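hey so i finally got around to running the thing on that chain from the lab meeting. sorry it took forever, my laptop kept dying and i had to restart like 3 times. anyway pasting the input first so we r on the same page abt which one it is
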Amino acid sequence: MYKKSQGGGIMKKAVMCICVLAFLCTFSFAKKMTILNFSKGEMPDDNNQTEVSLSEEHVEKEGDFTLKADFKEKAKGPWMAVFKPKKAAWSGFTKVKFVVFNPSDKPVKIAWMIKGAKMSNGPENRKDWEVTLPPGRTEHEIPLKDVVCNDGKSPLDLSRVFIYCFWGLEEKPFSIFVVKLWL
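ok and heres what got predicted. didnt touch it at all, straight out
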């Protein structure tokens, strides 16, 4: 009895395996987007009781800049924010990451806040995360997958971020250097 050659089947399986691997590799490398590039002069556009400036201190490489933020005392509500950011479509990302240098010899507390795409200033459109910055250079990660707003039930709509900011939470003034900020 005559059997058809299996050679073509092996080739199809090899091509199929290569295609599957290529597909999986595209998802294994996470997307990355710098949301404020300090070395290109990008800075927060709204600051309250916080002085911000570009600095050459604590940079990753020569020619780069960091964002120096001098926060005033907590009672005055210090923040540095970006309203209606140019890079606002965050729904495809799973985390916000930032590298900060705390020049103090003590930890300082800040908050990272995001307001989503809804036309609301209430807790159903906002999420705050408290972050402790130890002395020196540290990297921090804020999860964005399945985030629930401050009301405890509404999902944070990251299809078009309305605002993101750092809040100072210390009673006394302090300074930090934001080295990098990306998704």
